[in-house]
Amino acid sequence: MVSQLLYGDCYKIIDRKKTWVKIRMEWDGYEGWVTQPQIKEVSEKDYHEIISTDTIISSDIINYVSNHNNLLFPILIGSDLRVLEKLNHTFDGETYSPKPNKKKLSKTAFMYLNSPYLWGGRTPLGIDCSGFTQIVYKINGVKLSRDAHQQANQGQTLSFIEESEAGDLAFFDDSEGKIVHVGLLLENHCIIHAHGTVRIDQIDQTGIYNGSAHTHKLRMIKKLI
User: Fold this and answer.
1) Do 165 and 88 contact (CB within 8 A), yes or no?
2) In whole angstroms, how far apart are CA 24 and each of 12, 15, 164, 180?
3) In which band, very low, low, confident or very high, does the pLDDT at 93 lie, cut at 50, 70 and 90?
4) What is the CA radius of gyration of the chain?
5) Does 119 share its domain with 177?
6) For 5-33, what is the mean pLDDT?
7) What range defines the domain where residue 125 resides?
8) Are both 219 and 167 inside the same structural domain?
9) How many domains does the chain have?
10) Which of 96, 129, 149 is the last residue of a domain?
11) Which of 96, 125, 158 is the last residue of a domain?
12) What ranges in the chain are assigned the alpha helix state H?
């Protein structure tokens, strides 16, 4: 698994092979394969009408939409509700149109605390490091790329950790210099990141440390808001 679709995620079909369909995400341009029964095709006109409207997000960790037969479908936080009308679904939970707000990033991130790590995951039921930062920023109205090395190409680079604020992103590399990890900075030299679980650790100019050992080597800090 390379990533996950949430309810309302829009995409274009770019290839088909038997029961598999290759798609490209509208939100971040990410590509992957899904099985035919998982997709819901709409007309090109409906697609452009959906993506041209302001984003509407579900802010509940878990809730439900229902169809005309009153069948319930669970949806998770960060789901895009612009598709409700086109799918003839109804939703009674909390919604809002996200606007960039740096002060809310930490609060959103805490909603995922202790979520288990899952490669390619984007939900509180399982999430990876870049999926975590991407969805936290999405809920707060900012587009991030899907993978850590792609996210590292966005925003303004800071020279020192002392220049950073809560909500900035920290990136970490491996022994070959490849960026392989990302987390969201908090106050008091802390970072929240997906490593085993979504957890909070200490960070300094060298990297993340847990106790007396550094577990991740800091490469750069980026300010996006």
Assistant:
1) no
2) 5, 10, 33, 23
3) confident
4) 18
5) yes
6) 95
7) 102-223
8) yes
9) 2
10) 96
11) 96
12) 44-51, 84-87, 105-110, 129-139, 148-151
Q: How far is CA 195 from CA 12, 138, 209, in A?
A: 32, 20, 12
Tokens 């490593």 appear where? Answer: 195
pLDDT, tens digit, 9 for 90 and up, residues 101-144: 899 999 999 999 999 999 999 999 999 999 999 999 999 999 99
Question: 32 and 3 in contact (C-beta within 8 Å)?
Answer: yes
In a domain, 84, yes or no: yes
| pTM (2 d.p.) | 0.94
pLDDT classification of 213: cutoffs 50, 70, 90: confident
SS3 labels along 3-48: CCCCCCCCEEEEEEECCEEEEEECCCCCEEEEEHHHCCCCCHHHHH
pLDDT band at 202 (very low <50, low <70, confident <90, very high): very high
Same domain, residue pair 92 and 194: no
